[in-house]
Design brief:
alpha+beta, Pemi-like Protein 1, Chain: D, two-stranded antiparallel ribbon, 2 helices, elongated
């Protein structure tokens, strides 16, 4: 299958036909890994890694008390609203 590289903003891109994506088991918004091997660009589905921890996961081992503090950020330097 042949396609063209086209300008896309400040980058370049290609369109991949649905039949090609279906045969590679890829769907819209899937994360992919792009590598270069032997003068070829290889696109493959990224391993299913969790992007972000939830707030509960971040604090699951926290046993202390939370005390908010005020921070003195100094005087405004621009048009900041305090």
């Amino acid at each position: 299958m042949q396609t063209n590289i086209v300008k896309w903003g400040n980058s370049q891109g290609i369109r991949l036909p649905k039949i090609l994506l279906d045969s590679a088991n890829l769907t819209e918004n899937d994360a992919v890994e792009v590598t270069v091997e032997n003068d070829s660009i290889v696109i493959k589905k990224a391993e299913n890694k969790k992007k972000h921890k939830t707030i509960q996961e971040h604090f699951k081992n926290f046993n202390g008390e939370y005390e908010p503090i005020d921070i003195d950020w100094g005087n405004a330097e621009g048009r900041e609203l305090w």
